[in-house]
């Protein structure tokens, strides 16, 4: 079956090899990590000995401990050659970090692993590597990749498909008109993440609450809320639950990489607030799947989610900005670089224009400021150095 290379990731991973550090590919299930690892194996084969271990293959069911994993690697090593150890879904091995910590220190050995749960990068595991690993987060397809995978030209119609179905790579093999099969596929991915990565791994008892919480976040993506506010909402819906339980379950959802927690940032004080966060799904299709029975596509929420994913994919740390009681949708920081971004479905009304542009005008530094909208003629707007651009244009920017 034909596979489409995601060359940017392959090049990035390749640049990290040979430095005495493990490369850890993270991301939620079916985001494309396994395919990347297989493509990497094919590229590295002419350069050395590739030891490929797929922990979801039943043949590897006996590899349950770090000792068994280490022994398998030792048996497959070829002396006098560069050895590339590639392990898919490494979190299936108990205390895997103990084996990797040893092998990453050996001369002539490179280690690349994938994982679908953030627990594999907990502070304890990170400290056990003593800083000798580099994380590469694998996102679902961005809009530019969506066009490549589907073989489509950029247009309003194509963009609407992206906003509806998101970027899970396998979906391109299912015709766009086959909505039933595409919806069933999204459901199967959600069920796998829900059952395998949360319920079983975290020993969740109140499964119904966890599911309702995921759907609540999907319906309220881009809104500010806290564990306390969710607990109050659940109580009003005849589902009494403590704020502590809500916080625990929210952590479990975020640990799967299915949902991202975005902190609020005080632009004036240059500090991060510890409460009242926003949440965005890492794939628009999964978010829309969870809202499918409740309402039609909520385009403004989805558009905001798409812009968030673009900023994250571009390597920015993303926050929700706060300044003098006003909200800036996104403050994006990458090294010394900062971007401010407002997202609005339209800015044609005087009220909306005043809010979106006015909030950005309150920021007195000289970092770039954007208003991203679906308005087709937004590029004609010039106001105080703020860059106004269409959503399609913004998402296709390199």
Task: Draw up the topology in text.
Blueprint (H helix, E strand, L loop, with lengths): L6 H10 L5 E5 L6 H12 L4 E6 L11 H11 L6 E6 L7 H8 L5 E7 L7 H6 L4 E5 L5 H8 L5 H10 L13 H22 L6 H13 L7 H10 L6 H13 L3 E4 L1 E3 L4 E2 L5 E4 L2 H7 L8 H15 L3 E7 L2 E9 L2 E8 L5 H12 L7 E5 L8 E2 L2 E5 H6 L2
Parallel strand pairs: 1-4, 1-5, 2-3, 3-4, 7-10, 12-13, 13-15
Antiparallel strand pairs: 6-9, 7-8, 10-11, 11-12, 14-15
Provide tags for this entry.
41% helix, single chain, 15 helices, eight-stranded mixed sheet, five-stranded parallel sheet, alpha/beta, 398 residues, Rossmann fold
Describe the structure.
The protein has 398 residues and is an alpha/beta fold. Among the domains are: 7-137, 3-Layer(aba) Sandwich (Rossmann fold), CATH 3.40.50.300; 143-260 and 281-295, no CATH class. It is 41% helix and 20% strand. The protein is built from 15 helices and 15 strands. The strands form three sheets. Strands 8-7-10-11-12-13-15-14 form an eight-stranded mixed sheet, with helices on both faces. A five-stranded parallel sheet has the order 2-3-4-1-5, with helices on both faces. β10 and β11 (326-334) form a beta hairpin. The longest helix is centred in the middle third of the chain and has 22 residues, at 179-200. The radius of gyration is 22 Å and the shape is globular. The two termini are 29 Å apart. The mean pLDDT is 89.
